[in-house]
Amino acid sequence: MKDEEALAKVLPSILTTKRFDMSTVLGAIGGGLKKTAMKATGCLLVVICLPLVIFGLVSGNWTAVLISIAVTCAIVITAFKVIEYKVKKSFNNKMPMGGNAEDAPPAAGPLDELQRRQRIDQLLAEAGLPALAKVEPYFPEEDEFDVLG
Fold first, then answer.
1. Domain count, the chain
2. Residue pLDDT, tens place only, 45-61
């Protein structure tokens, strides 16, 4: 692995001024869980509606089949949303995300992006490592918290 590739793994999180706190981590994990639940719900709908489609092919009564599929989708989606609401509400009641985070600075070092980049560039040069401009093409495309979800 080249120096640029190794630095590209850590420099985005060093350059950011976003606060790293539990609500961010839990939000990323919750987003990943929601995506998985949505995929599972979609698979459930396909499994439930497949016999209806087969019935439509055999009987030719597509009006009844389409109405049945629409009602089934509405019921499953409503159930998904109700369960999602209850899980969020339960989780928020058990894990309050309060605190005086507004009083603390969002990140160590300069908050101005240009000053922050200049300081990182200076530190890289002092360490004998490649400049930030050479490392940036290797930055990952996704957000640093997407890997949690």
1. 1
2. 999 999 999 999 999 99
